[in-house]
Amino acid sequence: MLLNYIKIAWKVLLRHPFYTFITLFGISLTLTVLMVLTSFLDHLFGTHYPENKRFRSLYITSVTYTDSSRTSRSQGPASFKFLTQYAKSLKTPEKVAISSMFGFTNAYVNGKRIKLNTKYTDADFWHVMDFEFLEGKPYSQQNIDNGDHVIVITDALRKQYFEDDGKPVIGRNVEIESIRYKVIGVVKGSPATRIYTYSDVYFPYTAPKSNYQSAGLRGNYVGIVLARNETDLPAIQKEFNSGISKIPLPVVDFGQKFPVLIVQADKYLDHFLNALLRDDSLKNRFVFYSIAGFVLLMFMGLPAINLINVNVSRILERASEIGVRKAFGAPSKALLWQFIIENVFITFLGGFFALALSFAIIQIINSSGWIAYADLTINFTVFLVSMLVCLFFGLLSGVLPAFRMSRLRIAEALKV
User: Fold this and answer.
1) What is the DSSP letter of 16?
2) Is the pTM of this model over 0.85?
């Protein structure tokens, strides 16, 4: 029976090319936008290179001073000293990495200026992150203790600075702000949207201008705590919060006293939401997700309403067919399921075109250079979400007209 319904749907599509084009165009365009958006969100918040362990990582990205009513606040990254004292000392994690927020500098080769993104890290950074080394290796704790002027660069900088001469670059020098650094490793670059790993050149934190010796709680560093297992994350947060609670209050910042100190070790998505909402209360999260859900529903609902009108017109032309089938004893339930299955089939057909179009758009984005090292993909998560959207979209735009037409009386259907 299902196969017969699909065959009927295919014949209907061929019978009215204009309605078919309008229907498939609306479905394909809407689903293409949703697929590309889903792919981009997965690119931002999913577990991808080089942060392949993000699912079992916690991020300490900001130190916030505020008053008891939380009307006045001062917020910024943590200092290296603070993270060493309160994050590196944790017993539960497997590793704790410390790295700076990315900075900027310049290098010159043959009179040509190269703008560089820079990052200062400790040795554990290379254990917490899964960078692919194309040449050499990361700097070690011994390099850091010795104050060696060594760096790790990306493949893009290797090509730009050494002009892709085909020779290995390990052991060769790069001059940055009149200081010579020896290249110790070359990695495949991280996408620019992964702000805690993206850079052109990576320095040991003991390199000049790292400001790792700054006193106080605030500075220019973030901590990334790697758990042995995902189930250890709550225990790590509890241990970290226990240490933070022992910091003497009030905190003095530029002569102003703040009685409340907020420092959290959050999952990747959570710490972005906390920064956006400025409050991690359940009420604010509920409001945020409600608004996001409403926007998504409206985005899908408006095209669905238009498709409902198209489907009503398309099905109305088949009223005589409905009347004849009812006259021969076809129950309303059978007609209802026939039209729903037809509409879901048409929606999935539009989803197929949307999938092909989304793939083409994603390839254009990845190769365009708009996002450095962009690696958007239609992976299993994106594909599954897209298929669920197709199913929901098909039901949303097909149930109402199908129900309306299945309830037609025989006489009314034959008059149409």
Assistant:
1) -
2) no
Enter the tokens of residue 348. Answer: 């999935």
Q: Are 314 and 8 in contact (CB under 8 A)?
A: no
Give the largest Cα separation in the chain, rounded: 93
Structure token pair of residue 390: 């197709």
Mean pLDDT by 10 residues, the chain (416 residues): 68 71 77 82 89 95 85 87 96 97 89 92 97 97 95 95 84 93 96 94 95 90 96 96 92 82 90 67 62 67 61 63 67 71 77 87 88 82 68 66 64 54
Q: What are phi and psi of 125, to 5 degrees?
A: -55, -40
Q: Which helix (H) or strand (E) holds 64?
A: strand 63-66
| Locus of tokens 């084009």 | 21
Residue that the structure tokens 């792919």 belong to = 39
State the CB neighbour count (10 A cutoff) for residue 226.
20
Burial 240-271 (b: 16+ CB within 10 A, else e): beeebeeeeeebeeeeeebeebbbbbbbbeeb
The residue among 179, 178, 190, 213 whose CA lies nearest residue 82 is 213
Give every CB contact of residue 82 below 8 A, 6+ residues apart in sequence: 63, 216, 217, 218, 219
Residues comprising the chain, all counted: 416
- Tally: H helices and E strands in the chain: 13, 15
The pLDDT value recorded for residue 9 is: 67
